[in-house]
Design brief:
This protein has 112 residues and is of the alpha+beta class. It has a single domain, classed as DnaA, N-terminal domain (GMP Synthetase, Chain A, domain 3), CATH 3.30.300. It is 45% helix and 16% strand. The chain has four helices and three strands; from the N terminus they run H-H-H-E-E-H-E. The chain has a three-stranded mixed β-sheet with strand order 1-2-3. The longest helix is centred in the last third of the chain and has 20 residues. The chain is elongated and about 70 Å long.
């Protein structure tokens, strides 16, 4: 009789993800970096705008922020010069030299 393969457990999956030799290690490192940037950058925004923004990428001193619609992208776009000044004053964000806004409505819950 053939026995079915054992299903992986959560503990096995967790140890695989934590392994430095895992092919997922670079991806997890990037996710952690974006989470840290998100936690540091979003407080610089006004509360009404903060709820609708998310850091989605960072490469070579270039921060990309997603917003759900064009109106918010325009609002954020006009704030970029002041945000860059505030980033320079924050030791966690001083390396940011450029901020780009991207409209990505699918990242945000738009159901009513």
């Amino acid at each position: 009789m053939i026995t079915p393969p054992k299903k992986p457990t959560a503990q096995q999956a967790g140890s695989l993800l934590k392994s430095n030799h895992s092919a997922l290690a670079p991806l997890l490192e990037k996710v952690n970096q974006l989470q840290q940037l998100n936690a540091s950058f979003l407080p610089l925004l006004e509360p009404a705008l903060r709820a609708h923004c998310q850091v989605v990428n960072y490469t070579e001193h270039h921060l990309v922020i997603a917003v759900p619609n064009g109106a918010l992208a325009t609002q954020l776009h006009f704030m970029i010069p002041a945000l860059l000044v505030r980033c320079k004053q924050d030791s966690r964000l001083h390396h940011i030299q450029n901020i780009q806004c991207k409209v990505q409505p699918m990242l945000f819950n738009t159901t009513r």
